[in-house]
Fold this protein.
Amino acid sequence: MSPGKRWGYILSSIVLISGLFLLFIPLDVQGLGRSLAALWNLGHLLFFFCLTWMLLPRIKWKGIQAPAGVGIGLAMVCGLVLGGLIEFLQHGIDGRSAGVGDIYLDITGAMLASVWTEWRPGMTLFPYAATLRVVSIMVAAPLFFPLLAALADEWRARRDFPVLVDSTSCMALSRFSDQKNLQWLGDSIRIDFTTTRYSGFGLRFFPRGWTGYARLEMSLSNPSDRTITLTCRIHDRSHNQAYEDRFNAMYAIVPGENTIVMNLAEVSALPTGRLMDMTNIAGIGCFTTSLERPVALLLHRIGLAANPVRP
């Protein structure tokens, strides 16, 4: 065995042993942040690539290495069956959930490994190995786009801080936990509120440390002819999901331009007596309650300011 292949087996073994542990630990993956969550998801691809790459050369057919076609078929079955089993087992683990996207990554990782396996010369697919490997890279490349996009927007968020949302960038939408009712308009973000009991938006991805800032400002406009009552909430990482363990306040959004100002000294003093951890803010949300008819608001900017709130 060549030194390169030996190191390949060593590194693959480390990946597999680590993966068997990491796949089944209780963990809120999304709580890691966008880039780490995207990198974590790619672990499915890497795990099944290493597993299949190590197993395929050991599969024999009449005493010799199995044909490439058989190996590729087995790789697909491995990704589908074993990947499905892993998702089934994860379903009962706190913070983990089954997902078709993960199975797709499992199958893709296994299929990529089958293309990069060293097949015997003379096999039907052997002359096309180089072409298949180029195609495999082209197929796998888009899977890394979410990670690259997350890294790019996290860099932008750090650069623009203390601005948390600048609606002039379409990338701002990726900072919200649910984008179904959001639409980027170029100079603002349209937010559609429905007649359900609670309808709104949640800002999840932003710089967490707010120490040294006095207030949070949210600029938005109401194009309708009626005043809308908007409830806003802020919570930190230590939030226990209780209503009293987060900041809650109601604001009247009148027709035209509006600026919501939240005093961070008031935000940090929770009704429970606990002080909110201003170095680790986890989320901002605003919602309406049981509207008579749907309404839309336009969000322009969310940002922090250091100077004190005016009386």
Summary: DSSP finds seven helices and twelve strands in the chain.
